[in-house]
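Dear H.,

Thanks for agreeing to be a second pair of eyes. The structure we're designing against is below in token form, covering all 677 positions.
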């Protein structure tokens, strides 16, 4: 018998039905010479510190750093998980061959290999590697099974990642918590989450410390077209007014008028990050929500594998394109112009060198009407499908116009664009005419060089603007490029190997930062809380919070995956870093804990003349807590406990009428309500 192990029950069921294992038993399917079982995601995990030595059970600064000689794995202590593992282990013992049908990615490989390792598998192993869960893809995958050892490097990279996260997370979290934590405050530190938090804290600091400056710009209006002065920003209002005075009665002369026809390419196909970015911009979905929606579409066979970091297709997918387009019945008005003739093929879409284990996210051609999607899932499917169809449409033809004019030798420029043939843009129009202009672009009349006429100059007063707060869309892009602001698609593609985390993990990292109260959402904005800012302030080791260094680590993990770097070398580097970090934190000067404002959770409490208030009071937080409360002065040491538990740990109210009746200071309901608002 051959044992197939899938990553979840629903996938196991699909595989079982296709390969003829139609008899259901407790924990597996059987039939046609196959057993098909499943995991529930992770059945095994790296051992906890206490599993290596009792000395590591208690959080104790004296035993840090914790660096096991050899890392071990264990079955997760959960009744259902243990039972399923025992079923798989029993089948492993009896089978003749194992077929790893796990999720076709690094994490999926790690999940399956840990289970097989713990089950002491010695049987020959094959790998099912597919990019969609359609019947055709599964049948094709089983007809072309790979050798299990072909994915040893992928497993090595997953192991290195898990060990790296354990080494840094376990040690750094205990270090900073033991050194600086108070009132059960745990400072969670991680290889990926801490540099991500540092990006947000750094941006927030830039905004908080930003001082706006006034500047001036010249503009003039000629023939209903706005021209901007080419001198750029002027620091002096007087200088600007002098120029206006000089040119206002002079005629405006056109010096050059250039019209060039150009082409705009369709946007690239989606990888996971770009679909998360687009869904956040268009619909306000979180990265985690978008991943869940795309995963649902994948599991219902509507789109290909989602956890990808490439926006390209391999050349061997090209013969399948017309079939996919033909099956997209709901989009017939867009697909019909493409069918019946040769489908367009460009290197912007098809590039074998840009594809590794999986290709871009595209529809499979299955009918979504058979599934019953909710409104959010429909929106995501529509986004992916329109982007897919668009890349096979003609380029959008545009007319780009640049006009230069001057008055008394003071030069002005105007630009405009007109869409001549929409091409791929028809996929994204909403009932507008084909010939239209871009938003905020001017429609230009025809100018002639040398023409002259009256104009209306003016001096605009403007203010420099602080950097924008991160949204999930811009944070995902920053993680993808290790904190560098990159708008160019090609340059961003080159920087992906050095990004923070991987597409499949970034949503989870962001959500962890929210759940640990390091971040809060204000509409689309992402802000660091007082606790998040405090943690980054405590970390003096730049390596630990460096986005670029984390990007380098990610590159090394990819190199391990491609056989270009050794796991032991990666571990040695992290071991050395953890040792240095431990010595540094142990000798680091203690910094007083900042108490987070209990009302807004973004600012921290500061001392006023008679009360504590919020450091963000200028931004509207009006929380105050008087030093003297119910006749008792509240000390700094009591403040945290009073806010955390609602009562003082030390101070008591003395009742003159009943000397023996001592009552703790307790926040009254009115003040508690004020804190919650």
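And this is the sequence the design step returned. I haven't edited it by hand at all.
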């Amino acid at each position: 018998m051959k044992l197939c192990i899938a990553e979840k029950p629903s996938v196991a069921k699909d595989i079982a039905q296709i390969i003829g294992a139609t008899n259901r038993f407790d924990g597996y399917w059987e039939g046609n010479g196959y057993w098909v079982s499943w995991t529930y995601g992770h059945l095994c995990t790296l051992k906890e510190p206490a599993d290596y030595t009792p000395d590591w059970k208690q959080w104790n600064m004296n035993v840090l750093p914790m660096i096991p000689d050899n890392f071990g794995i264990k079955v997760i202590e959960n009744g259902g998980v243990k039972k399923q593992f025992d079923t798989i282990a029993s089948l492993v013992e009896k089978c003749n061959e194992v077929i790893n049908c796990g999720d076709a990615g690094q994490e999926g490989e790690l999940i399956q290999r840990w289970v097989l390792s713990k089950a002491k598998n010695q049987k020959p192993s094959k790998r099912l590697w597919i990019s969609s869960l359609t019947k055709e893809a599964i049948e094709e995958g089983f007809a072309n099974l790979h050798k299990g050892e072909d994915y040893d490097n992928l497993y090595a990279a997953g192991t290195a990642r898990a060990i790296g996260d354990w080494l840094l997370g376990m040690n750094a979290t205990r270090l900073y918590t033991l050194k600086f934590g108070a009132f059960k405050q745990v400072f969670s530190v991680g290889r990926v989450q801490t540099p991500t938090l540092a990006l947000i804290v750094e941006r927030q600091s830039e905004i908080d410390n930003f001082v706006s400056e006034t500047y001036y710009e010249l503009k003039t209006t000629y023939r209903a077209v706005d021209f901007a002065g080419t001198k750029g920003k002027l620091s002096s209002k007087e200088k600007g007014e002098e120029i206006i005075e000089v040119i206002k009665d002079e005629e405006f002369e056109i010096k050059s008028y250039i019209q060039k026809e150009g082409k705009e390419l369709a946007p690239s196909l989606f990888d996971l990050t770009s679909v998360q970015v687009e869904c956040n911009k268009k619909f306000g979905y979180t990265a985690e929500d978008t991943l869940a929606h795309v995963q649902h579409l994948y599991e219902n066979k509507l789109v290909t594998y989602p956890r990808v970091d490439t926006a390209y297709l391999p050349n061997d997918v090209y013969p399948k394109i017309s079939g996919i387009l033909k099956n997209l019945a709901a989009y017939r008005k867009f697909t019909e112009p493409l069918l019946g003739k040769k489908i367009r093929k460009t290197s912007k879409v098809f590039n074998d060198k840009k594809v590794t284990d999986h290709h871009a996210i595209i529809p499979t051609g299955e009918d979504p009407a058979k599934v019953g999607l909710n409104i959010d899932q429909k929106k995501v499917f529509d986004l992916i499908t329109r982007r897919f169809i668009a890349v096979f449409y003609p380029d959008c033809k545009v007319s780009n116009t640049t006009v230069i004019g001057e008055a008394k030798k003071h030069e002005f420029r105007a630009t405009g664009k007109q869409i001549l043939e929409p091409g791929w843009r028809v996929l994204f129009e909403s009932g507008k005419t084909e010939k239209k202009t871009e938003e905020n672009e001017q429609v230009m009349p025809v100018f002639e060089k040398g023409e002259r006429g009256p104009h209306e100059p003016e001096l605009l007063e403007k203010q420099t603007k602080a950097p924008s707060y991160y949204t999930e869309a811009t944070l995902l892009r920053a993680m993808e490029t290790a904190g560098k602001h990159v708008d160019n698609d090609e340059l961003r593609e080159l920087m992906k190997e050095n990004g923070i985390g991987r597409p499949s993990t970034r949503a989870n990292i962001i959500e962890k930062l929210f759940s640990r109260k390091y971040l809060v959402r204000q509409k689309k904005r992402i802000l660091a809380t007082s606790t998040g800012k405090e943690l980054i302030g405590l970390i003096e080791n730049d390596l630990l919070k460096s986005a670029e260094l984390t990007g380098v680590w990610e590159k090394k993990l990819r190199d391990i995956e491609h056989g270009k770097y050794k796991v032991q070398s990666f571990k040695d580097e992290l071991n050395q870093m953890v040792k240095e970090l431990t010595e540094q934190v142990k000798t680091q000067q203690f910094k007083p804990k900042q108490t987070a404002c209990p009302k807004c959770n973004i600012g921290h409490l500061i001392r006023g003349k008679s009360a504590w208030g919020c450091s963000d009071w200028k931004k509207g937080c009006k929380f105050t807590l008087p030093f003297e409360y119910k006749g008792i002065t509240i000390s700094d040491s009591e403040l945290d406990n009073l806010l955390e538990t609602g009562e003082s740990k030390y101070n008591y109210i003395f009742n003159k009428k009943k000397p023996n009746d001592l009552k703790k200071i307790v926040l009254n309901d009115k003040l508690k309500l004020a804190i919650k608002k």
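Two observations from my side: The chain has a mean pLDDT of 89. DSSP finds 22 helices and 25 strands in the chain.

Warmly,
E.
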